[in-house]
Amino acid sequence: MNPKQLAAQAAMPHVKSGMVVGLGTGSTADFFLIALGDAIAKGTLKNVRGIPTSVQSDRRARELGIPLTTLNECPHCDITVDGADEIDPKLTLIKGLGGALLREKIVAQASSTLIIIADASKIVPALGSKCPLPVEVAPFCYQTHAAFLESLGSKPVLRRGADGNPYVTDNGNYIYDCRFASISDPVGLQKKLKDRAGVVESGLFIGLATMAFVATDDGVKTMKKE
After folding, report:
1. How far apart are CA 177 and CA 6, in angstroms?
2. Within its chain, how far is the Cα of 39 from the centroid?
3. Distances (CA, A) of 113 to 27, 71, 116
4. Less packed terminus of the chain by CB within 10 Å, N or C?
5. Single pTM value for the model
6. Pairing of strands 174-179, 133-137
7. Helix, strand or coil for residue 114?
8. Cα separation of 19 and 57, whole Å?
9. What does the pLDDT look like over 73-109, one tens digit per residue?
């Protein structure tokens, strides 16, 4: 079985009938959507409603027969299951390489439990070790943020689509992918980013994850919030 699929299967026992479930975005989260759709189709889970974290996961959930709702209708999620791009030992995350970081964080903050599913390649000793930090910015004068992001110790690169134009998120914003040597103070960095007008959100998920199921060569490892 694919390691991502193993991690997704490990999360399934935490989903109960009658729950409102946040539906993550990305290749690992897709395995969870498949498993959830299958359980609903078989009647193993009943009266489950999903809240997608992106246009992509909305479309995929509809294909798989997962009933949907919104945070406007149901302001509280019982559980959200999503992937991550990096996971540090404290369960602090970098997310957003798939471009859905803003909606993912909105749904995560509205959830009682955030379960992360991943393969072992996502585990890092410190955030920023492997992947850049996505920072979503408003299009207005977006170029002015490059120097600011550099002043924080990063090397920012504007994300572009296949056509060479700026990549546009589901929310109509742009993304700078910011490469750090490492992020020693995620809380301090997040505050500086949020204090900057025009920065909409960052891919730092701090204190949100309850647990993570990480597929390794020896099986699925469980990481829990300290």
Report:
1. 29
2. 23
3. 21, 15, 10
4. C
5. 0.96
6. antiparallel
7. strand
8. 18
9. 999 999 999 999 999 999 999 999 999 999 999 999 9
Q: Name which of 133, 54, 27, 53 is nearest 86 in CA terms.
A: 133
Q: Which residue has the tokens 């943020």?
A: 145
Query: Residues with catalytic annotation?
Result: 104
Determine the 3-state secondary structure of 28 from DSSP.
Answer: helix
**Residue among 181, 22, 32 at smallest CA distance from 100:** 22
What is the CATH number assigned to the segment(s) 133-203?
Answer: 3.30.70.260
Q: Determine the pLDDT at residue 105.
A: 98
Yes or no: say if 176 and 146 are a contact pair by the CB < 8 Å rule: yes
Which among 23, 4, 159, 185 has a CA at the least distance from the CA of 97? 159
| Type of residue numbered 222 | T
- The sign of the torsion formed by the CA atoms of 184, 142, 162, 136 equals positive
Q: How does strand 204-205 pair with strand 211-216?
A: unpaired
Give the fold, CATH level 3, of 3-124+206-224.
Rossmann fold (3.40.50)
Tokens of 138: 């408003």
- Rounded Cα distance, 2 and 8, in Å: 10
Residue 87 · residue 124 · CB < 8 Å: yes
Cβ 81 vs Cβ 7: under 8 Å: no
What are the sequence ranges of the domains in the chain?
Answer: 3-124+206-224, 133-203
The DSSP secondary structure of 152-173, one letter per residue, reads TT-EEEE-B-TTSSBP--TTS-
User: Which has the closest alpha carbon to 200: 102, 126, 103, 92?
Assistant: 102
Q: Identify whether the C-beta of residue 70 lies closer than 8 Å to the C-beta of residue 20.
A: no
